[in-house]
Design a protein that fits this description.
mainly alpha
């Protein structure tokens, strides 16, 4: 174990503890990212926006134009949520590596 007469072994136990803590942090971060992606995916569906409907450059135009933001009701979102939604839609655009198209 990690104890030798109630003292930590030199380096071995501390290294094990550090590895376990790093592993826990990575799992927590992955879980948090999955939760955020689920929220953005739900928001995207509620706005009837699917990444595969447009190419990457088209999504960039939508998010850079006040007229398009208003048309798609994106002007109501706070800037942070809007940026996350833009990243999500671009990641799943028609010409991306992982396009998302409704009905598939």
């Amino acid at each position: 174990m990690c104890y030798n007469n109630h003292k930590l072994e030199s380096g071995g136990c501390i290294l094990k503890i550090i590895v376990i803590l790093v592993y826990i942090c990575l799992l927590w971060e992955h879980s948090f990212a999955m939760q955020n992606n689920a929220e953005i995916e739900k928001l995207s569906k509620s706005l009837n926006l699917y990444g595969g409907e447009k190419a990457i450059i088209q999504w960039r135009r939508v998010f850079s134009s006040p007229r398009h933001l208003k048309r798609y009701k994106l002007d109501r979102l706070d800037p942070q949520t809007r940026a996350r939604l833009e990243d999500y839609l671009i990641k799943h655009a028609a010409d991306s590596d992982k396009p998302i198209v409704p009905g598939l």
